[in-house]
Amino acid sequence: MDDVDADRRGNVGDPAAAARALEHVVDPLVAVADGTITYANEAARDAFGIGEADRDAATALPGYWDRLATAIDETTVGTVRRVDFDDDRQGARIHRGVDGATVTFDRGATDADDEGALAGTRDRLVKDRALEEAPVGVTISDPDMEDNPLVYVNEAYEEMTGYEYDEVVGRNCRFLQGEDSSEAAIAEMAAAVAEDHPVTVELKNYRKDGTEFWNEVTIAPVRNEDGEVTNYVGFQNDITARKEAELALGERTEELEYILDRVEGLIQDVTGVVAGSTDRSELESEVCDRIATEAGYDGAWIGERNPATGTIDVRSSAGTGPDRQRIETGADHPAVETLEATEPTVGTVDGRTCVALPLSYNGIEYGVLAVRADRDRDVDERETVILSALARSIASGINARETSRVLATDAVVAVELELADRSFAPTALSSAADCRLEYRRSVHRTGDETASLFTVTGATGEELTASAADLDGVDCRVVVERDDGCLVELTGDSGLVGWLSERGARTQAIEAEDGRARVTLEIPRSANVRSIVEALEDRYAGTDIRSFRQRERDGETRQEFAARLEEELTDRQFGALQRAYLGGYFEWPRPTTGEELAQSMGVSRPTFHEHLRTAEAKLCRAFFGDAYSSS
């Protein structure tokens, strides 16, 4: 390394220093201008016998100049060209400048050296070039000098740090350190040098212009033949991109863990609120209170679309609420965008991040939940997904409260509509079999399947079965066939009754004839009637709304009484009682037998009669009271 060090320690722009450096170059080197040798180093003078008077290149370099002259003419200024000679001699490298060229011969191009010396020189050259052209920063320090200063740095080191060779040689490498450099890494390097063993650390360093970069530093001792440490070699690798990616990943992981830990308690609490609240207003109020007290948020509110005023009306809020109780549906607000797009929206309101989430269950819109962050921060996709899950839970709870109001409220909206969509089984079957169907009840089977019972007039059981076989997705089973009609069980009717029930609406009647079905249902006046009706129109093409009527219930209706009784009956007891009544089992003569009804339920005759007797007893208690239950 001595030659390399000597070459690079001269002052930039010092001709004498440059000449001295070239004298140490072991390859023969000549400078040529217009065919005249203007300089030849010691290796060239020895190899070609060039004296002070030998300035003519053609004379001084016989056998070489013709090829070299042609190559020089063909070499572009500022570039390098390699010339290989025709015989066993090795080639030369031409560095073309504006006023001339420098030719550096491989040592093998001359016959002046013996093979042993040539091999040693070549090995030295390879090592020197490897250090200079290495893609990582290479440094060499001298521990015998005060403060173990650098005595060599390669070009990659200069490019990495922004420092020139003369600015760093003679200084300890600690000048790259700064206020954010790891004290632990620095101490680890110092200990390794003191104990003469290699070490690799990662720490933040600073370039000449003050910019930071992450440096992977490896330091290793270099020993002589006696095992004594003569130098330390260092390798520097700029790992900024990798380190920043690792730190970003760590930050995101830490953030995710924080969110999960924080939101886990929020989810549990909101779920508890949804399960424990007695009505919708209480649910919404407690949910907003809980979210507003959670770290990371400082406010929450729930609003509902008001089609009469064209606004979103705030139903409940906590913490830092909305700036007003009504938000125009045409305003630039995340809540407005969420109701229009029916998907979460993240925006900024009054300098704070606001997340708006739709409150929707089974296609029924119950409003919007808006959550305000405690500062202007990003709400990423993961946090939005978690809040969306909360919103779905809240919407499910609202749906349950609204559904329970069907039996409790006296204020209802009676809606009558007409369906012509053939995906509705009663409509399709009335047309295919030319008959009339009238809805009786629905039966929930195992596996959440719903079967609807209809009385049918105008067609025989065989005709009904044959017609249903030609309809996709319709299963018609004849339960009882009588002279004046049939009792059939339909599945595959798109689950309209159950679908309406989940949305807080009660099916009062279904009458189907000539390919059209008239459906009458009741919806609590406090429910989102518009949303339910719109969902029906989307579900069945060509739905025609016949009437809306608001009314108050007078006492317990027949449907309410039946619903109350049904709550006391098991599914089997209710099914046995229902089939017995609709099948004419209580008439005389009986058009059907207990055996036939038992088969329709898939149970034995004794089991059927046991269910029927228990149901009859509960029915009597509902009419006469517990005082007469034993009479």
Automatic annotation (TrEMBL):
Annotated signal sequence range: none
SMART domains with a match to the protein in the record: PAC (SM00086), PAS (SM00091)
Organism domain of life: Archaea
UniProt xrefs under InterPro entries: BAT_GAF/HTH-assoc, GAF-like_dom_sf, HTH_bacterioopsin, PAC, PAS, PAS-assoc_C, PAS-like_dom_sf
Domain PAC: 199-251
Keywords: Chromophore, Flavoprotein, FMN, Kinase, Transcription, Transcription regulation, Transferase
GO molecular function: kinase activity
Residue ranges constituting the PAS domain according to the UniProt record: 129-180
Any Pfam family the entry gives: HTH_10
Transcription keyword on record: yes
SUPFAM superfamilies: GAF domain-like, PYP-like sensor domain (PAS domain)
PANTHER family: PROTEIN TWIN LOV 1
Name of the protein in its database record: Histidine kinase
